[in-house]
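Lecture 7 notes: from sequence to structure.
We start with the chain below.
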Amino acid sequence: MKKLFLVSYIAFFTGNLLAQTVTLSLQDCLNLALERSRDLQIKKEEVKVAEHTKGEAKTAYFPKIDATLAYLRLSDDINLLAEDKLLPIGTMLSDGSFGFRPDQINNSWTEINGQQVPLDVNGVPFDPSKNPEKIQWKDYTTIPKEELTLDNRNIFVGAVSLVQPIYTGGKIRYANRMAQIGIDVAKNQEDLERSEVIYDTEKAYWTVISVEYKVRTAEEYQKLLLQLEQNIQASYDEGMATRADILKVKVKLNEVNLNLIKARNGLNLAKMQLCQMIGYPMQTDIELVDDITDKGTLPDMNDHITLNTTFSNRAELRSLSKSIELSETKEKLAFADYLPQIGLTASYLYTNPDFHNGFEKKFAGSWTVGVVMKVPVLHWGEQKQKIQSARSQRVIAELKLDDTREKIELQYNQAAFRIEEAKKKVEATQSNVAEAEENMRYATLSFEEGLVPLTDVLEAYTTWFSATSDEADALVELRLNRLNMRKVSGTL
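Predicted structure tokens for the same chain:
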């Protein structure tokens, strides 16, 4: 029961909101559309991505410090000897070297050139310093394998390392420049998207106002015909008009009623489209404050925009100029690969066991400092291909820039011609409306005095309605053409 009450309350509250009339100005609609546009929000986030990329590239100037912690568990002990070792027992000689006395070996001796020389098992004299394996030792000492077995299956390692680039051939500087270009391009794309949102919203705004004016004109036309119908009916009742006159007015009135229904439906659709752009529910009843016939809403400041101003304002040209700059930076970056790279390294290693002191089970550390230089020797033309690719990209960007400038110049000339044409059309339609109003007034008075037939009055009404609709079309066309000029010139 509570849920049903809550749903009913929400439905009632929402219905009241939708039933309220919302009054909006052009600036209100533009602000709402800019705030709502998901495409514009995406462009803003892309600017943030480019800014973060620039921040990431900037960090390459600073040293990078990393810490590493590791634990290893070995499955077996570390044996420094594969088996027990037998070491001969000799004598420390007077010169500090290891040697032997004749009584410490089993070899036989002989005298050669007055010196005692040992004999091998075959009785052949040999030099003990060159063939120590032929010495027949009497006594040996033993080093058991177990004495050199290390119970270090648990190994702990900790390290801190630092790398500071000293010279990279300009790669870090060029990478930062490319990142900045990426920010500029992203902002230009944001400007383009904002321009599109403003253009579409303002176009929809004036379309609604234009259709509203046509609806009011049709309603006024309907009132004139209803009044004429009453007059004809009164004349018919007095025997001064025929049944055919009444039918003629009714046929024209039915035609106007049908056109009025179409115009109101078109107005609802135009309002729905505008509501969708500004983020309102499409059933919202909106009322726009401007009037298409108000000359104050028809500024002509954009009629004097020059072609040079257009070239300097267009975001597409700025983006293409940045593309050329980006290609040149890529070329320099590729050339930097030919140059050596120098960096400073430092590290501190902390281990258990202590590898510097007999694998003792305790924590101990050591540090290292060094300079590393990397020099490219042979990469099979990799850098050359990168340079050629960057040059080709620059040529492509230059060609696109020239082509876009020509197209923009054509757009500018077309927009200027359309404004002048629309101005003349407004002047002509306003003159037609004035003449149609005078004709309608004259035909009405003449008909009342019996000087002209009913068909002349209906034709005068139709001419006035047609002229008024043409004037509305011309006024909105002039506004949209000026809006288009602002878009073409990059001042929107």
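Points to note: Residues 1-18 have pLDDT under 50 and may be disordered. The CA atoms of residues 324 and 395 lie 8 Å apart.
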